[in-house]
Amino acid sequence: MTHFHKDPAATMRKNRLIWIVLFIVLLAAGIAAAVLRKPAGPAANPSATVTPPASIALLASDVALVQRQDLRQILPLSGALRASRQASLKAKVGGEVREVMVREGDAVQVGQILVKMDATEYLARAAQARGALAAARGQLVIATASRNNNRALIEKGFISKNAFQNSASQLDIAQANVDSAKATLDVAQKSVSDTTVRAPIAGLVSKRAIEPGEKVSPDAPLIDIVDLRRMEMQAAVPTSEIQWVAVGQEVRVGVTGVTTPITGKVMRIDPSTQAGSRSIVVHVEIDNPQTILRAGMFGAGQLTLNRRDAVLTVPASAIQNIDGKTTVYAIQNGVLQRQPVTLGITGNVDGIETVEVVSGLDDGTTIVRNNLGKLLPGTRVAVDKSPASAAL
Q1: Whether residue 94 is found in the same domain as residue 186
Q2: Distance, CA of 319 to CA of 341 (rounded, Å)
Q3: For the whole prediction, is pTM greater than 0.85?
Q4: Alpha helices in the chain (DSSP H)
């Protein structure tokens, strides 16, 4: 029978390996326990307090005063200007043009003679119609006398009733002939009058389409007149915003080449969208008594959708949302404070987006105008009020 003897050296190596593995496991467990027992740092501890910096320096351009202002909620508009009243004169009768009394740019008054046409033919027709009317009236006199005589005779029984009715019918025909001749004369006289073209409105001549000696047919263009004392800007408004537009709303219009903004108002709103677009044309009327504005100029307007007078306002850039609250950073006694506020409408003051403050701030309070990030309440604030910092 064979006996196996254990090698003492191998047994020793095996035991040593077991002890090494056991030591590594225990060491890893100790490290893990130490990590779990380690207290959280300041950033992870919600109860830890953060000490604000001693002070911060702000530029004058970084702060603003809460103040009462007239706030306007606006909708931008733009479009070309045209005259509200204009007239395009056309020839009412055909013929040769004898005189054209005005040129482009001339001022004209209502009823002023602008064009004279050859009236010879129309005068002859009027004379002919006048003669026909005279003849018809003569026949009417004869027919009237005949009817009156026959009435006396039928009362005495000297003529039949049929004879009297014939004379009455002749009188009716004679009266109809007079009426027809008179109408023909009126038409002829109207044609004579139409050879002289007069201005239907006061304004300026914008176009002269004919020259003396030309022969024109009825409806041929002659003269265009525009009244520049009242202008109109046609602006396209998206259908998504047309619900806010109403007749009578105020519009401030800046016109290229004119330094002073001009005030107009919405006069009409088209009932349908423009072909090929999703916009509706709004007509803004602008008074122009000095005729500074001219047709074709481009205007950029601001339509006042809503207006608040003398309300507390702050720049929109000062508003922040911190921890779910609408907040403004206020500076009180040189110390920074977070001030929750309730806001009203957002509008425009001198081209700056501005917000109405309903509650939370007092008139004259100094606030941080610009969004400088999340600041720490309690920080002392020093404001550089030098002119250089205010200009930044």
Answers
A1: yes
A2: 9
A3: no
A4: 8-37, 120-156, 161-194, 387-390
